[in-house]
Amino acid sequence: MTTATKTRALQTKRIQALVWLLACAMVVAMAGLLSADDTSSVTSQTSVEAKADRDPAIDDPYGINTKPKVSEGIGVDDHIGQFVSGDQSFDNHENNRVRFGHFFDGEQPVMLSFNYSDCPKLCSVQLQNMTSCLREVDFEVGKDFQLVSVSIDPNEQTSRSRATREKFMGQYNRPESESGWHFLTGDRDQIESLTNETGFRYKYVREQKLFSHPPVFILLSPKGKIVRYIHGLNYDPVTIRRALIESAEGKIGSPINQLAYGLGCFVFDESTGKYTMQAMSIMRIGGLLTAGGLLLGLTPYWFFTNRKRKNSEASMLEPPSVPQQL
After folding, report:
1. Structural domain count, the chain
2. Is residue 318 part of a domain?
3. Pairing state of beta strands 266-269 and 200-201?
4. For the chain, N or C: smaller number of CB within 10 Å?
């Protein structure tokens, strides 16, 4: 083997060793960030639990932040990760009996809310604000996801819920989405069965003749898994869009959205009610881009180096040519 061939072989080995070192460095960096991420989560969880264990009388001795009696006993229990059975039956706007599990088609997520048409104000504001928000989201009701509102009033009639449905469909102003809007009514047992499975707590206040309940939208996966709770009355289009992607398990949106979901780029922050970028996911993307760049840059070099080496070895194996004698 010639000196030039040996030198090229040595250079190739050095480059390969450098690539392995870079790959190992990226793995170590990712592992370190993951550990830091987990430690931060544990610390945050501990502080939340410690805060919850504190005596309310110490934090609020005058009862300024005490809930009024009408709000006692209502709220939302976190059931994220649990599946809704879908065994409950309700009447739709056409007065046809439908099973709630009918909406779990395996393709589209479900945005669920609990309201009632005779609500003095809260339900109307909740649905109106979400309808306005959805007009700014590029996903469409009926095409990309299903929107289901279940009345918590067992005495609500189909004609009343139909009028409510038409009202908010008119505000949404997308006639082609009609198949995705569902306003359901049912008896008390069916309503309580679904609210219990989703962690939604409400009650009827006899003195005021109204239902007291929290404003919340529940995002369900195409197979009925509880994925996310969106609380309050103000909705951010970016947050709703990402919540729909998360609840759809990456099945809706562009390939970029699906990649972002697969890599876990966005994490829901309970304290802000919004999605934030995860450092670990950014490192994953950086690692993939770095590895891809290295592979793209070194492949031609390896190809031509191996080709030259084979040609050199072949020329060394050929017998020397003997000059013909005249």
Report:
1. 2
2. no
3. unpaired
4. C
